[in-house]
Write a structure and sequence with these properties.
992 residues, alpha+beta, seven-stranded mixed β-sheet, 32% helix, 30% strand
Length: 992
Amino acid sequence: MLISARYIDVEWNATKQVKKVFYGSPIEIIKKSENNFFIETITFPKRFFYFAFRIEEPISNPPYFLFNEIKEDLLEIIDPKTGENWWIAKGRWISESKKRNYGNKYVHESFRTAGRLELHINDITIEISNRTNNFSVEEMEFFLTDFKNELWSIILNSESVVNAELQKSTPNIFNEDTILYVENCLNSVQKILNDPKFFLVENQQLVIKKKVKPVRRTFRELTTKPNSKTFTSRIHDKSYNNSENRYIHFCTEKLFFIFNKMLQVVERSNIQFSNMAKIYFEESDRLKNSDFKIIDKDLFIQEAYEIKQRSLNFYTELEKLNNNLLPSFLDEILKLNSKILNRNESGNEKLITYRFTLDQIFEYLDHSIQSRFLNGKEFETHPEYHIYNGKYLVVEFPDFIFNVLSKYINSDREISITGNFIWEECEDFYKFTCCNIKKIKGFDRVTYITHQLRLGKKLDNSNDLFFCNNLNGIEYGGKNKRTLKVKYPFEIADNFNDSNYINCIFEISGLANYIKYDNYDFLNWLEINSIKLIDSPLLSDLNKKRKDFKKYERANWQVAYDIHEKKDINHEARLLKHRAIYFENLSNKYSELEGKINSIINKVRKYKLNFRSLNVSKSSHFPNSMVFIQNPNYSSFYNSFKKFLLNSNLNLNQVDQLIEIEKMGLVNISKLYERWVLIKIIKILINDFGFSFISNWQDKLIKAIHDNKYNVEFKAEMPDRQINVTLTYEKVFSNDRRPDFVIDFEYYKYHYNKNNKEWYFEIPPSISRLVIDAKFFDDSSEDHINSTLDELVDIKGYDDNNINRVYIIHPGKGIIKRKTSPLIWSSSCDYGHNAKVINTQTILEKFIARTRSSNHKQGHICFIPSKSIEGSIDNLKRLLLLHIQHVTTVLYSKKENGIHLDWHNYFCTTCSANRDELIVTPKPTRKGISFNIKCKSCYSEFVENFCYNCKTRLFKNGTKWTYHRTYSENTTHCRCPNCNADLYQLTNMDKF
């Protein structure tokens, strides 16, 4: 039979009639045998929605898909232009009014479902492997299997967080008590099978004449066959198919299913922990034997370009600032005088010279300035004019002179004017009108000066006061040195708040007072007329980058560790080795469990066969009979089985629903991805952060997956940390938007009562919200994900006016072209380093704009359902860690003997150990307190610090769990996520 296949698209009208057919590329049909063929197709096509089949021979029955074991007939369409007929998957009709992108189309589940399905045309079968652009069918099958295994793992793993190190990840269902209950069950089953309860069933059978127990048929046989040796007789057989045995058989079947799934979980965990141990051992050895670090060349170049762009922007801002500064008063008066001299004509007028102070603009007359002093003497007591009744002096100038003088109003400034004047007495003041001005001269009673200074940090709680580190070559600050405080005009100080200005050396000219106090010196800039940049950290950094680039090029971008880096590397190697031993022990623990579970499965399998050989059926109905009271074997089984279910946190309804989910075949990829992420989030919160879920959460989870529910809440608590979590799957917002996951962390804000010297917390507790959307973008780009993120924030309002964190989870690996860190996650994750881009033109501008501070508020991470990249789960843990760490609290008080730690709810970022297992050491600085945290269980260390510029909390979690932006040359240095300040440079300024 001649069959062809190709991608097509169909334009339909509103009445479901074909208007036009568009043809895409043909699909190769591979012959496997005489009547079996194979094709490969793609999900989520951007064009050509349908894979279509053309059958060029008559067929007896319409072709159909076998989709999830359901028969679905294909839809025949005819191209109006060519008359060719094509068969496509029908699906459901979506009108244009309902969905703009897919309007007026039949959309079948195969459009978004990866996996295998079959097409049947008469006696021909075509196997269709419907894959995604980036994932093969085999990987999608692994995805589905992993989803089911993880669901079982999390249900069986509900009480996994215990204190004993080797039991930390051991599920509750695997503990000794649970195994003992199952063994008791099986011992009881063995005894039941040895002596099963039965009842007699009457049957008929041929027997010899002398043993016959006659029935009606016996008498007929005696009449018709009197000489026969055998006759039909009544007999009584034992039947074991009673209600009690049916229930025991049913429970045995459930045990067999549960322990088979347990075995899968154990085998998978054993392999997983064994692989992790191997990876950690190898990484530990690699670091231990490493003497060189590899510098990311592309990231280094990006950092250099960013510094260059920031320098250019800085120079532009400084130029604008200078353009807005007032020129020197005396220089402007000289220019004005030159202008007057050029305009004047010679004459013999009688000229008078007066000196006026420029006190304030007089609002009731145009071009007028009020003056307190005339010719150096206070006007109200001037001896020549005998002014009384508090009258004051107002001087009216020509507009071109007033326009200049009005910029320099200051009682310490005077002008001398030679010309003609009109004197006029008004009700409240005397007015001088300047006419025919021949000469003007300016005087400043405040010193005009030029200083070269290095800008320091802004004083706390001040808008215009800054420290100065160096004035005209004299150092200030530090030990045994006086401090210099500088006050700038507000419009200047507002610019100096930018971290780019800190540590810059400027040459500043203007009017200033210098005052010496007991403890510090004070420089007060009254007016600044010029700011010239002499040197800046940006310029120094750029020059250093240029030199280092040449050095690294010669070294092939491999650089030897310095002594401090090598010390850190050796410490990290020891931590990795300790963690590897931990995973190795876990693997051994699961290996032991494998043997126990296999032994149980073999017994259960044997007993299942025994029940079948006894023709015992299964029934879930528990017979409330005396047998389960009087017979010790039945009673023992029932009691042990109940204890098993109770101790394992399972019930039979859950098992039945899990069995239904286990039968799941081809499903919507996007929906499967969402549910897979849901399971992983719960698993991380339990296993990695130690939260305990409550309120029948297993039932809710199973129903959310089985019944397609939304607004499903999962509540978890951690009383020791005073943090509670509410995870909502498909929460409906007030604007009817429905993100996939909303995680609310409930925590307390504390305040210190100085009177009774006690801490108290606010009621009600505060809420910190993380909103996550899982997007299975099969083939996407960084720009596409960023635009989708902008849509979630700007259109759907997930951020709630920048209150919530908003993140996208996607399977796109390596999509970030311009990284912000050399760490392992940098090519696939953006932990809120990149701010929104607005009106940018070039690629460089776009990168600079996106690396503006965003304080981890909006971003995206890669999370891949593929066995080849299992480490991507660390990306999700890192995101949750980011959010949880920012709701932790540390309470301390200052005592005479130092800092006293009152309480904290830190936890170990590696093993989730609580406060009792942590050693917290406060480190006082002049700008605040930082905290060094060491874990006694796994020896991990992390630090809570703060930005010296904006006080934002910062967590240095080591190279594996750090989520801040770091540098190509040193991963321990990071930028503030809020103000983008270089924390290493700011830390070095602590002495100021």
